[in-house]
Amino acid sequence: MNLMMPWADPDDRVYSSPTSLLVKMHLGEAPDHAPSLLDVHDSCQEPAHHEDGGTIDRILSRFAGAVRAARLHCAARSQQRRGHRHQGYDDIEQTTGVARTFFIKVPRGAPIAEICSRLRQIASVETVSPNYVTAMSFDAEPGLERPRNPNDAAAWHPRNMIGATEALQHETGDPGILIGLIDSGLALGHPELAGRIREGGYDTVKLHSSDVAPGVHLLGDYTENDPHPYDDFVGHGMGCAGIIAALGLDMPPGLAGQCRVLPMRALGAAKLPNKVLPVGLGALSDLDLAITLAVNLGAKVLNLSFGTSDAALAPNSPRPHQDTIRYANARGCVIVVASGNSGQEERFWPAAYPEVITVGAVDATGQPAAFSTRGDHVTLSAPGARILTTSLGNYQYATGTSFAAPFVAAAAALLVSRAARMSHPLDGQQVRDILLRSCQPFPGGASHSGAGAGILDAAAALTTLDEMIVHSPGPMGAQHVH
Fold first, then answer.
1. Considering its fold, how many domains does the chain have in total?
2. How many Å apart are CA 278 and CA 80, to the nearest integer?
3. For the stretch 266-292, what's the b/e string if a residue is b when 16 or more beta carbons lie within 10 angstroms of its beta carbon?
4. Domain of residue 201, residue span
5. 388: CB partners within 8 A, 6+ apart
6. 303, 223, 228, 201: which is closest to 268 by C-alpha?
7. Can you give the CATH number for the domain in which 236 is found?
8. For the CA atoms of the chain, what is the radius of gyration?
9. Is 476 inside a domain boundary?
């Protein structure tokens, strides 16, 4: 994407929208009058035309003229109350900051960097961020009507590497456990996913031609928020969904068994001048909104196969997704994130947050893949090279840490299912500890700096969970294990 951005901080090497920014107020300073962004998009509320009636409004008026403001996130208890979604935020929403974050729309040509700099100096403002736009592409061999031989060793090898068959014999998964897939959406009617997709997901993509660089052509549905998270162009989300939830008709079955996917479309589709295939484009506001909506809709596990390089961000900009990651963690979600595909030792966000389980990729030999981003924040690795999975209507071989993360998200869902079956709730930290204790070493016992503690072993993770529950104090114990 062309990064000529006269409106942005020159230290920012991540594209950002020229027409919006995000402002988080300090606790107790957020104005009550601003509606939620979904209510504005649903045309049941008008955006606020002022923020604080004071200094903030004077700065916005001077540098942007007409502005429109809305709360980025809905209140969980009011999410189904159209027109009133900004009412009733609880303590978790307040302390994590999601209740205090505002989406500010400004005319194109407004100096975003100057506005951010001025707003950061106001005592009532906690953080200000440009509305970054992440581009996601992936290495795939799409268009297979069906695999030539879905039972061949190459198709099954990644699953065998992590003990998938044994894990599903140990725990079949609970249909009530939802895996929130924050991605490019799903194709309708793929036979591999029949019965494995939870109705009631959402499409948070809200892009306009004025939000993207010259030469970028937006594709498909990119302007309407609605409960239809469908993808017609990218296939990134479909690749992740097959690894998690496929029935196993013409490919190995998904590792999450009967657990279901809650699709959240936060990556729109676009054609870039230098790319043959469409890519996914995700605005920070759309991705963060999808995360909180997924949590509020009941997702227990989140799969986040996207990220922004820390090195590409201006030093004074807040790191993306911090508040929504804290919110999901505070609600008890297990958050699984792909480490990135730079092949370097660096941090991507949200992969570098301590609340998440960060997944690198190994190749068919079990060695860390050359493309996998490394770092001390990487928790463990999983297969991520040439994975047979679903595509838009067909099948594909997909490569990237984006497709290593779903193996771990699926294993986490099995752990949550198993624990729930034995009345033993699990949070993200407990799942992380179990995965670390049970992962298998890299081949030959080699130590690979920045690739995590080892390779996912889903079967061993379930056994470790059983042992943990057997030895847990109190009424839980061996009598609960079947």
1. 2
2. 33
3. bbbbbebeeeeebbbbbbbbbbbbbbb
4. 137-470
5. 147, 150, 154, 155, 251, 252, 395, 396, 397
6. 223
7. 3.40.50.200
8. 22
9. no
Q: What is the pLDDT along the chain (482 residues), one digit of tens a residue?
A: 445 799 999 999 999 999 999 999 999 999 999 999 999 999 999 999 989 989 999 999 999 998 899 999 999 999 999 999 999 999 999 999 999 999 999 999 999 999 999 999 999 999 999 999 998 877 666 556 667 666 778 889 999 999 999 999 999 999 999 999 999 999 989 999 999 999 889 999 999 988 888 889 999 999 889 999 999 999 999 999 999 999 999 999 999 999 999 999 999 999 988 788 899 999 999 999 999 999 999 999 999 999 999 999 999 899 999 999 999 999 999 999 999 999 999 999 999 999 999 999 999 999 999 999 999 999 999 999 999 999 998 999 999 999 999 999 999 999 999 999 999 989 999 999 999 999 999 998 878 999 999 999 999 999 999 999 987 765 444 444 44
pTM (predicted TM-score): 0.95
Gap between the Cα atoms of 29 and 97, Å rounded = 11
Tell me which of 132, 154, 178 is where a domain ends.
132
Both structure tokens of 164: 């998938």
Distance (Å, whole) CA 339 – CA 404: 9
Let me know how long the chain is: 482
Q: Side chain identity at 192, as an amino acid letter? A: E
Look up tokens 């042992």; give the residue.
467
What token pair was written down for 419? 């624990």
Sheet holding 16-25, edge to edge: 68-71, 101-105, 16-25, 125-136, 279-283, 268-271, 217-219
Tokens matching residue 261: 């996917």
Q: Which residues are catalytic?
A: 183, 236, 402
